[in-house]
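Weekly puzzle thread! Below is a chain. First person to post its structure in token form gets bragging rights.
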Amino acid sequence: QVQLQESGPGLVKPSQTLSLICTVSGGSITTSSHAWAWIRQPPGKGLEWIGLIGYDGRTYYSPSLKSRTSISRDNAKNTVYLQMNSLKPEDTAVYYCNAQLVLRDVWGQGTQVTVSS
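Winning reply:
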């Protein structure tokens, strides 16, 4: 069964770069038709889709975040990465890794990221 674990710094200063890791277990990130997304939820707001990387390595991003976001992967480590630069206080949110499998979605527990000086 696929399980996801997010990790990264809890506190980042404005203008710095955020790097998050999603460690995948119980399934391969290169499995056909699977995709691996990053989604966030700011305090008091709804979920916001950031982007995803497909099983074939193709990436797709939210237009509003595309200019400062990069999603990548390491097949050998079965790991997906999120990098977001030029962070702002409004990027404060719980960041989730999400596996879009053929018949269901799987979510990580999420990791809190606070952008503050």
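Puzzle host: Confirmed. Bonus trivia for everyone else. The chain has a mean pLDDT of 96.
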